[in-house]
Amino acid sequence: MALSKKWKLYVLHHSHTDIGYTERQEKLKRYHVDFIQQAIDILTDIENGKRPEWEGFRWVCENYWQVENFLANSSEENIACFERYVQAGLIDISLNYLNMTELVDNDVLNHKLAQGRSYADGLAVPLDSAMTADINGYSWGYADALANNGIENLFSCIHTHHGMFPLGKKHHGFWWEGPSGERVLTWVSDHYHMGNELCLVPEHGITYLLEDRFNEKAAVADFAIAEERIFQYIEKLDQDAEYDYNFVPIMVSGMSTDNGAPNGRILERLKAWNDKHGEQIEIEMITLNHFFEILRKEMNELPVYRGDWNDWWADGVGSTPAVVKHYKDAQRKYHIGKQLAPESVVADKAYLDAVEYELALYAEHTWGYSSSVTEPWETLVNDLDFRKSAYAIRANQLASLKLDEILAAKGEVTIRPDREKLFKVINPQATTRTDSVRLYIEHWEDVEGASVDILLQNIEVVDEATGNVLPSQVREIARAKEVEVVIELAALEERILRIRLKKELQKEQYRYLAVDKVKDIMYDGWQDGLRVNAHQVETKYYSMAFDETQGIVSLVDKQDGRSLLRDNMEHAPFVGIYERTTTEPDAWEVRHTMGRNRKKVNTNRHISTLRNIRVGEIGDVSATVVFTYDLEGTQMYEIHMKVYRDTPKIDVTLRLHKDSIWDPENLYISFPFTAGGAEDLYFDKTGCLVRPGIDQLPGTNQEFYLVQEGAAYVGEEKSVILALKDTPLLVLGDLKHHLIELSGQGSTPKNKEPLYVWAMNNFWETNFKVDLAGFYEFRYTLATLQTNEAAVAIDACKSYNQGFLSMYV
After folding, report:
1. Which residues contact 361 (CB under 8 A, 6 or more apart)?
2. Do residues 56 and 270 touch, judged by C-beta distance below 8 A?
3. Which DSSP symbol is given to 783?
4. Per UniProt, which keywords does this protein have (predicted)?
5. pLDDT tens digits, one per residue of 657-676
6. What is the CATH number of the domain that holds 755?
7. Is residue 315 a contact partner of residue 729, using CB atoms and an 8 Å limit?
8. What does each C-alpha distance from 25 to 18, 259, 317, 690, 768 come to in angstroms?
9. What is the Cα–Cα distance from 319 to 312, expressed in whole angstroms?
10. Same structural domain, 77 and 152
11. Omega of the bond leading into 585 within 30 degrees of 0 (cis)
12. Does 109 map to a domain?
């Protein structure tokens, strides 16, 4: 078929960074340093006349992480040579730091982008583009982060396995407008190995997306195969009435693998092609920034889109829930340290560089070795899993040590005999807040000489500044007594509290307590505005009723009399939903065909069955009700719901013992709440607030979301918030297998559908951690606020997750 015009095929040569997918993480670090050196050597050989057949070679460093490691591990001579080739436009630097998940927070994302920006500025070269490969989306705040760091162009090569392009198509450009109004010119290209599929690399072709008669022998990448595939590829674009250009960019790897080396032989293939077919389709290897120069000259008016580019691949975090919990704790400590001592933290560049590096590397998109699911016993599979976890562990250690240092400067002391029971409590937030805080008396300590045996009923907490006695509650924990109080603290306020003995020692007292000590009279448990029993909980804020089979069946906000449970809820609050799919025909194939549902039509779904409700504890601060469930796939599924007496807060803790199962699994937790009336649901994503299903690019994922701090239902007069400490994946809508509606399609109002926490999964066929077994504790806070401002509501999620600090002084 004759083409309607002459075409230009622009080839961008790179190595896709997939840290831990094909080799040990530290080995891949060495690989990518050497890949840049190999590119330098190729250009040097061309320059010296040793390889004239490779003239036209260009190399694109896919991310600044590659460059950062090269600069740290190369000689001054090689660095000077590298920079000379960058300035000549022969080597290009993408200013994206890594191919990230949305687990990364906005501070770390911006700081890592800024490092690349700073280096590029020092070269005095107009580098203003970023490229990503493989990943299926980015938080809306990513657009602002790019623009804020002088990155004007984004080249996206999405891998649509279990995902999809935005707007339902590839090879198109648009202006992506961030929340601030800043815009980034965005080009959505094809898969990052498309150049290999078109057989541009001798002996390193593949068949993955293209299906034709050459499937079995495409790897040899004969010239004849390249001819047929390239012409078919260009003919489709030539016939596309919506495609306005006579050029198209594709990416190519020097080898048919992720983390592949540069390959000068591509230029031999391009020369042979141009000699034979250059009058119809000319192929040229160019750099990333050069492509955007061409695009900006040739493009017509492009559409502008605002909204979240929600990532289809964010769910990898659900395959490592224990380590993700540890990572989220590291993030909190990192931020608390900066909030309490901003000047000293910023001055400690070595600490910031180290902790932000570890936080960034754990948030990188690779979640395991390529055979993690099919060969979970392999030594390399487990070694790479340990190394991935080590990024989170090191980040937590670094952030913990820095926070210890900051608290020591504020007066924290270590344990010592006969110490006064004085504690400093600190609000790390920049707003006045009321919250609970825990003080600890070690198991070997006494209070004013009193034996620990009588402490549970006979101590009190005093505010040293005012002399006021604060309501407190004592519970036994491992190796200590935990004393919890509720206190109001101004922004960044510090207060000294003392634990002392009550003047008159007391014994536990009950109203309506019979000789059998069974509390089943209507008013059992009603103590100063708090009623708790196996059928109900009532405080001055909430009225809650239980059913012996369903659990919580009613939850009313007593401030306005409205129900906090959704009319369209399918599962009661905190109920567990476990899914398991039979492995047929094998562990790889069953997962490979799951698609965007992350399950199949024949997936077995099990709802937790309530076995018991018991009152765990009642005191002056809170009451705890324990719901014990039976749930398939687990040995224990237990909800500890703590309702506070004097603050509109409910803490929820899931204690879980998960079985080891090789089949594909999902575990969800129901959170079917509402603020009532007209409301919008907001998620806190990296650098932005998003209304799921509303603030999104057309054609993007609205099945699940990876959030930072939590979610908020924002109504006309109040908000209901869900703060997520440990499990950041959220799901909206029906859990059953269904046809996927992308954002902007259909009439289903995703923003109005029931909400679930997606606690864990192992569905991916290659590099998820397949074994979810173990003991877990996941924590959540549900609260109501008298605000209709989304930013205030989401900030409360962060505040509840960080909590107040306490320390010995």
Report:
1. 19, 25, 98, 391
2. yes
3. E
4. Hydrolase
5. 999 999 999 999 999 999 99
6. 2.70.98.30
7. yes
8. 9, 11, 18, 33, 16
9. 15
10. yes
11. yes
12. no
641 with 681, same domain: the answer is yes
Return the C-alpha torsion angle 218, 223, 229, 232, nearest 10.
Answer: -160
Residues 6+ away with beta carbon under 8 Å from 429: 339, 491, 492, 798, 799, 802
pTM, full prediction = 0.96
How far apart are alpha carbons 56 and 180 in whole angstroms? 40
How are beta strands 622-630 and 609-618 bridged, if at all? antiparallel
In this structure, the answer to whether residues 442 and 398 fall within a common structural domain is no
Q: Which two tokens stand for residue 18?
A: 């997939």
Tokens of 389: 């976890």
Q: CA 86 → CA 83, 124, 125, 364, distances in Å?
A: 5, 10, 8, 26
Cα four-point dihedral sign 787, 788, 792, 798: positive
**Which residue range(s) make up the domain with 378?**
314-404
Which residue bears the tokens 């300035």? 87
CB-CB contact of 486 with 442 (8 Å): no
The verdict on residue 437 lying in a domain is yes
DSSP secondary structure string, 296-329? HHH--PPPEEESBB--TTGGGGGG-HHHHHHHHH
103 domain residue, yes or no: no
In-domain check, residue 522: no
Token readout for 597 is: 């549902």
Q: Is the pLDDT of residue 199 over 90?
A: yes
- pLDDT, the chain, mean: 94
Categorise residue 307: left if φ over 0, alpha if ψ from -120 to 50, beta otherwise: left
- The structure tokens listed for 212 are 């034709």
Within 10 A of 380 (CB to CB), how many other CB atoms are there? 14
DSSP label at 584? -
User: Based on the number of CB atoms within 10 Å of its own CB, is 724 exposed (0-12), middle (13-18) or buried (19 or more)?
Assistant: buried
What CATH number corresponds to the domain at position 270?
Answer: 3.20.110.10
Please check whether residue 175 is in contact with residue 186, taking contact to mean a CB–CB distance below 8 angstroms.
yes
3-state DSSP call for residue 80? helix
In a shared domain, residues 59 and 182: yes
Residues 488 and 444 in one domain: yes
Max CA pair span of the chain: 101
- Residues composing the chain: 809
pLDDT digits (tens, 9 = 90+) for 263-308: 999 999 999 999 999 999 999 999 999 999 999 999 989 999 999 9
Q: Which residues of 124-158 are buried (b: 16+ CB within 10 A; e: fewer)?
A: ebebbbbbbbbbbbbbbbbbbbbbbbbbbbbbbbb
Of 268, 299, 330, the residue that ends a domain is 299
How far apart CA 184 and CA 177 sit, in angstroms, is 7
Strand partners, 725: none
Are 621 and 697 part of one and the same domain? yes
DSSP 329-371: HHHHHHHHHHHH-HHHHHH-HHHHHHHHHHHHHHHBS--S-TT
pLDDT digits (tens, 9 = 90+) for 46-70: 999 999 999 999 999 999 999 999 9
* Chain mean position to CA 303: 29
Same domain, 280 and 341: no
Q: What is the mean pLDDT of residues 173-193?
A: 97
480-489 and 433-442: which strand pairing? antiparallel
Distance CA 801, CA 435 (A): 11
User: Is the confidence at residue 511, as pLDDT, over 50?
Assistant: no
- Give the span between the Cα atoms of 134 and 160, in whole angstroms: 8
